Amino acid sequence: MKNPQTSITLTHVTLYTDETGVSQFREDLIPLTEGSEQVTLSALKGSGGFQLRQSPVGFKSEFHCTDKPQFVFILSGEMEISLQSGQSRFFKPGDYFFSADCLPSDTLFDSRVHGHKSRQVGGDPLTTLFVRSEKE
Known about the structure:
With about 140 residues, the chain is mostly beta strands. Helices cover about 0% and strands about 50% of the residues. The chain has no helices and eleven strands.
């Protein structure tokens, strides 16, 4: 059933690679055009599977790029994503973002220029759900 209220949207953060190969944040809108007046939904999107991950207190990664675009949902704990520019964002339970900072296949990864790093924040382990995007 189509929702007649086509102006309703949901905003989410996207982590992407710009035209120079540098990871950036942007906010994207997802139109909620399905459902009813009581329950608005986005269009159904395909997925390529999911993984659950538990990161212990103190976890932190090195700079890296996303292998395949995926939604990352924070189930418990807190996560910080930091970019090469020094910009960072924190994500708490109930937050999510679309991680799509993939390098073009002909680009050699340079940890001084490319990617993002993540870390667990606070006293609780970080539990995340990764849902692979069907779109590459």
